[in-house]
Structure prediction request, 117 residues.
Amino acid sequence: MNTAMLSAQSGSVWSWVFSPLGLLVCWLAVINLLTFFAFGVDKWKAKRKVKKESVRRIPEKTLLMLAAIGGSVGALLGMRVWRHKTLHRVFRLGVPLILALQIIIPFGLWLYINVIR
Prediction:
């Protein structure tokens, strides 16, 4: 490949990354990774707290907020992988409900804008 072609391809990659869809994909990737690891860190801290060590846990409100701002897939994976917060009703029901809303609302808006209207 010549440099002009390579430059054109890299330019199109950056233009896609900085498009609204690209920014959304990047945001969802980052927030889901952050949420997944937040569940893991909180599980690790919970195990340390059992041993009577002074540890500051991640508040449940923070974990739910991470799920609500786009990290619901990371939260579900974190709950399964780390086996954390699986007995709490607010997490068992709340995180899947948040994920469902995060799928239904954009689909409903798309349907309204492109089909119904």
In short: Residues 26-116 form one domain. The first helix runs from residue 3 to 17. Helices lie at 3-17, 20-50, 60-82, 89-116.
